[in-house]
## 1
Amino acid sequence: MENYNIELFREGLSNLKISLSEEQISQFITYYEMLIEWNKVMNLTTITEFNEVIRKHFIDSLSIVKAMNMNESIKIIDIGTGAGFPGIPLKIAFPKLEIVLLDSLKKRVNFLNEVIEKLKLNKIYTIHGRAEDFSRDSNYREKFDLCVSRAVANLSSLSEYCIPYIKINGKFISYKSGKIEEELKASNKAVQILGGKIEEQVMFQLPDTDIERAFVIINKYKTTPNLYPRKAGMPTKNPII
């Protein structure tokens, strides 16, 4: 750990009012090292420089504290988690969380399993598959307090992938970049049909960058109709409008 300048990380954590132990900091360093090692043989991230990973992956993932209290023992599913963002940083920083990581690529899921084992994380599980399929499984449908996603997709499509997983009175929080006003307007109908309501947008700038970020907070107030999600690929090809 002495090979890394972690002051940037500590500063970012301080700005978010997150306090981590030395063991948790060490877990983040190990996670970074595994990310870079595995990235040599598979495409996990285009961001590899230490400070950039700290800013654009770790701090960005943890910034959800601006939108929701993460200190509670809640059950979360991370849809399209990729290399584990935001799910693994959230689990390291907030060990009481129970988290499911879902991704459609088996190689990425293998990486996630290695990270979980290496960091000795508990109550965090992986699923290899498509969001459309598992949200029809009674073990997962409407079983989560919170669904999160940093996946790059329009909010209408993401809502169809994510809202079916949330319990009534739960939340779907989407990580978004840039200007989102038009996307919000275009997604209103889909969100309502799926049983949700857009409650709030939390806008901020990622520290030490010019990246504009936003959290779109959707509350679920009624059961998602059985019609949704539609068959694989449909939410992306033909978003509800």
## 2
Amino acid sequence: MINYLSNKFISICLEEKIIDVDSDIYKYGFESILSSYLCIAIVLFTGIFIKYKLIAFFYLLIFYFIRKYSGGYHCDSYLKCIIWTDFIFILSVIMIDNLNYELLIPLCIVCSIFSIKKAPICHFNKPFTNSQRKIFKQKYCHIIYIFLSLGIISTFLYPLLSKLIFVIIIINAFLMKKGEQKNEKRITKICG
């Protein structure tokens, strides 16, 4: 569906002379934008449906900032990405409802240390230079420290937000590990 809509959009742009070249870059860009908007819409819809609309909004906001510089697991198709994103949101809500601070905080600290050591995890198809790696790592460290501080401060004021921050940091560490493993498997296949 995303591929079909993207091709249709590019055809219209070519007919209207908005773009002058039928390029895969335009198609990929539009597919990425459409996929992102679908992920956001589905998570927000799920949040409204399960009566966690504010948590859904903050989940998207926090998860975006953390994932932007941490890297990690990426799905092989847009449909899988949409399903995984919604699944992770639902898993986050379940964890918020069922885990207490005595478990969340130590687990979050361990996951933070792991993720800071490993960040950023580059995507196999989109490697970055050593200077980019240093910049991403530095930004990721700042973001984690800010969110950890916000999580601790909001523990008494907004406990759901606090738990959400801790849960996202934990889940992101697992996604980073999964992304690292996926990259290793691809390299092993190529290099033998």
